[in-house]
Amino acid sequence: QVQLVESGGGLVQAGGSLRLSCAASGATFGLNDMAWFRQAPDKERERGARWSGCTTDYADSVKGRFTISRDGTKSTVWLQMNSLKPEDTAVYYCAARRTFDREYKFWGQGTQVTVSS
Q1: N or C: which end of the chain has fewer CB within 10 A?
Q2: 86/1 Cα distance (integer angstroms)
Q3: How far apart, in whole angstroms, are the C-alpha atoms of residue 104 and residue 117?
Q4: Of 8, 107, 5, 117, which is closest to residue 66 (Cα–Cα)?
């Protein structure tokens, strides 16, 4: 069974940076689609960044500021967040799915990111 655990959230001033980590364990073989979602209390869940093996993509709201990456062993997925804005404040979730899964099947518990102005 796949387990995802996020870490690295916290409080940061606008313009600062944070790096989130998602540690994957268990049956990670075939997890070729990894993503970072976020959800603020007054907004619906948004996919911010996705790593799908051969490509990455980003929401317009984070493009140019956030970078998703994965280590060679595929045991850790990172989200480097630069030039943070107050509107980036949200709970950030790591999610994963196998190649042909329609929906993200595996989720972490989330980590809070708060950006002060």
Answers
A1: N
A2: 36
A3: 33
A4: 8
